[in-house]
Amino acid sequence: MPGGIETGEPVVIAVDGPAASGKGTLARRLAAHYGLHHLDTGLLYRAVGLRALREGMDPVAAAEALTLADLAEPALRADSAAQAASKVAVIPAVREALRGLQRRFAGEPPGAVLDGRDIGTVVFPDAPIKIYVDATPEARAQRRHEELREMGLASIYSRVLQDMKDRDARDRDRRASPLKPAEDAFILDTSDLDEEGAFRAALSFIEQRNR
Ligand code: CDP
């Protein structure tokens, strides 16, 4: 495992942070580098959010019935799914149901990188490596705006920025597992870093931690 943490248990790397901070890309690259599984836990909340708000399903029942096979749906990538996700994510019983799924996923050897909001604080408080990825709201909104345009979708920067601020506020101010860095997390500000720079900074933190 990462440069030699020999715990005998599957290893978990927790990557948390607000929307469009770059945590997903970083988590994917770390998983590929260390040969670990990867789970974008936001997709779980997106899937529950869509089922609840589009199909009128009870959010707790939707969370209890969710499987990894449900995460491939392209509609989960839309911004409307992200807004729906942050609305069901405030419900403690939804979070509890999804916690079991996340723990089972990471229990498969050799372990996993999970990215989300509460991986290092609540889902895996004992993870040996925790990274909290952050960036200014403007830098994050600009990235999201460009991504949407590259997907051929209409996007207005000021609207993206406002939606992002609303969602950040909902995630930070909720009582159940609010978005915040774990006390022992490495804070990685990506406002002025590209993908490669963020990856290199995370690697050097992990390698230093493992020495
Ligand atoms: O990709 P982006 O960062 O924009 O969003 P996401 O990671 O897919 O998460 C969508 C929403 O799900 C977040 O705004 C949170 O409200 C919720 N979420 C959560 O509460 N806990 C997680 N571990 C992951 C996502």
Order of helices and strands: EHEHHHHEHEHHEH
Strand content: 5-15%
Spatial arrangement of strands, main beta sheet: 2-3-1-4-5
Specify the number of helices: 9
Distance between the termini: 13 Å
Overall geometry comes to: globular
Report Rg. Answer: 17 Å
Q: How much helical structure, as a percent, in the residues?
A: 40-55%
Largest sheet: 5 strands, parallel
Mean pLDDT: 93
Quick one: how many beta strands?
A: 5
Low-confidence stretches: none
Name some characteristics of this structure:
5-stranded parallel sheet; alpha/beta; 211 residues; binds cytidine-5'-diphosphate; 9 helices
In short:
This protein is an alpha/beta fold and 211 residues long.
Describe the model.
The chain has helices at 23-34, 42-55, 59-65, 79-88, 92-106, 119-123, 137-150, 157-173, 195-210; strands spanning 11-16, 37-40, 111-116, 129-134, 186-189. The longest helix is centred in the last third of the chain and has 17 residues, at 157-173. α3 (59-65) packs parallel to α5. The chain has a five-stranded parallel beta sheet with strand order 2-3-1-4-5, sandwiched between helices. The model has no long low-confidence stretch (mean pLDDT 93). The protein has 211 residues and is α/β, with parallel strands linked by helices. Cytidine-5'-diphosphate (CDP) is lined by residues 19-20, 24, 41-42, 45-46, 82, 85-86, 89, 116-118, 167, 171.
